[in-house]
Amino acid sequence: MTRPKTTPLPPTIVVVFGITGDLARRKLLPAIFDLYLKGLLPSQFRLVGFMRRDLSKLEFQTLIQDSLTKYHRGASSTSLKKFLKLIVLEQGQFDDPAAYERLGEQLKSLDNSLGVCTNKLFYLAVPPALYPTIFPLIKKSHLAKACESARAGTGWTRFLVEKPFGRDLGTARSLERQLKNIFTEDQIFRIDHYLAKETLQNIITFRLANPLFANIWNRGHIVRVEVRLLEQEGIVGRGSFYDEVGALRDVGQNHLLQMLALVAMETPATLTAASIRAARERVLKGLKLAHSDFKESVQRGQYEGYLNESGVAPYSTTETYFKINATVTTGPLRGVPFTLESGKGLPVKKTEIKIYFKNLKLIPVEVESGEVGNVLTFTIQPNEGVALSLLAKEPGLDYLVTEKNLEFAYATGWPDRLIPSDYERLLFDALMGDSTLFPTRGEIIASWQFITPILNQLNKLPLTRYRRGDLPSVS
Question: Mind telling me the catalytic residues?
Answer without folding.
Answer: 255
